Structure prediction request, 190 residues.
Amino acid sequence: MRLILLGPPGAGKGTQAERLVTNHKIVQLSTGDMLRAAVAAETEVGLKAKAVMDRGELVSDDIICSIISDRIDEPDCANGFILDGFPRTIAQADALSALLEAKGMQLNAVVELVVDDEALLGRIEQRAKETGGARADDNAETLKKRLAVYHEQTAPLSAYYAERDMLSTVDGMASIEDVAAAIDKILAAN
Ligand code: AMP
Prediction:
C-alpha cells in the first residue's frame, strides 16, 4: 500500500497517517518530521532548512526529493508507505512519479483532506498549546504564510492528480473517526 495524503497544514494528515501505519503495517514518511530531525541534529541539510522552515516557506525541491528517494529505499518501506507533506509542488510530484517508476513502484491512492482555512488556524493554535510551542512554525503569523504557500504551490496538486485519475477527496472537517472511515473506504477500493 503506497499513498499520498494531501492537505493543508493542520488538516489532520499526521493523525490519520498514524492510524494507517498501525492498521496497514506501513510507514509514515513525513518530510516535515525528517527536516525537524535534521534541524535538531544540526546536519548540513538541517542547517540549510531551519530558516526557511521558520519563515513558513518551502525547502528546495532537490533537497526534499533526494531525502525521499533515499528513504523509500530503506527496508522498512518494502511493505508500503504514506507520504505526509510530500509532494508539495508540481516539480516534486513529477520527481516522485519518475523515481517511483525507476524503482518499479506504483501509488495506490492520493487522498486529499479538504479543510477550510479558518478551522486550520484554530487547530494549529490548539496544537501549539498542546505541544507547548515545540514547533517554531506553529504560530498564527507563520501559519498564514504556510497557508498562502499551500494555496500557491501545493493546492495545484489536486488538479494534477485528478487529471491522472488518482485523486480521492475526504471532508477533513468531519470527526477523526469519520475521516478515518472515509479513507479506509477509498483504500479498500484501490
Ligand atoms: P510540515 O510538518 O509538513 O508542515 O512541514 C514543516 C515545514 O517543513 C514546511 O513548512 C516546509 O518549510 C518544510 N517542508 C516539509 N515538507 C516539505 C516539502 N515536501 N517540500 C518543501 N518543504 C517542506
Summary: The CA atoms of residues 56 and 146 lie 5 Å apart.
